[in-house]
Amino acid sequence: MKKLKSCGILMACMLLLVGCTLLSEEKVKLRDLDFTVLSEEKIPEQLMAVIEEKKAAPFHVTYTDNDNLYICVGYGEQETGGYSIAVDELYLTDSNIYAATSLLGPEASDKTTAVPSYPYIVIKTEYLEQTVTFE
After folding, report:
1. Which tens digits make up the pLDDT trace of 6-58?
2. I want to staple 120 with a disulfide (CB 3.0 to 4.6 A). Which of 46, 68, 70, 74 is the partner?
3. Structural domain of 78
4. Which candidate, 101, 126, 134, places its Cα nearest to that of 33?
5. Which residues form the PrcB C-terminal domain (predicted)?
6. Number of domains in the chain
7. By CB neighbour count within 10 A (0-12 exposed, 13-18 middle, 19+ buried), where does 73 fall?
8. E strands present in the chain
């Protein structure tokens, strides 16, 4: 009986360690991706239509034209204008593309309009098969 109890405790510890290893699996950056932030005039028409449809709420969209990958992040309706968006990271791992952006609010000294705005960013990069993960 004592041997069986010891085996049970050992098995529980092994399962716990395996679970911790799976949860702590690190994403290993293979390389940063080169990218361009597109102005509104350079966004493909089909993608622009999707953005217009979704811009009132926060969104994440990817689009490809088989030559390029477009990664879009929208922050939904904001009370005023004057916002900008920074690309914090865009990199490739063996299984995913990771994209991280930040919404930057207007400076206190900026003159902003009381008209709502819908800040979004469109990032153009090389076409890759990996799934985009937004952070």
Report:
1. 444 545 545 444 444 444 456 899 999 999 999 999 999 999 999 999 999 99
2. 74
3. 27-134
4. 126
5. 69-126
6. 1
7. buried
8. 31-32, 35-37, 58-64, 68-75, 84-92, 96-104, 120-126, 131-134
Residue 64 lies in a domain: yes
The token duo for 108 is: 């206190």
The pair of three-digit structure tokens given for residue 53, joined into one six-digit string: 């449809």
Torsion of CA 68, 71, 72, 73, to 10 degrees: -170
Output helix, strand, coil percentages for the chain, rounded to the nearest 5. Answer: 25, 40, 35
What type of residue sits at position 93?
T
Q: Alpha-carbon distance 49 to 75, whole Å?
A: 17
The string of DSSP letters for 10-36 reads HHHHHHHHHHHHHHTPPPPP-EEPPEE
The first and second tokens of residue 91, run together, are: 């990199």
The token duo for 103 is: 């919404």
Residue 117, strand partner residues: 78
Q: Model pTM?
A: 0.78
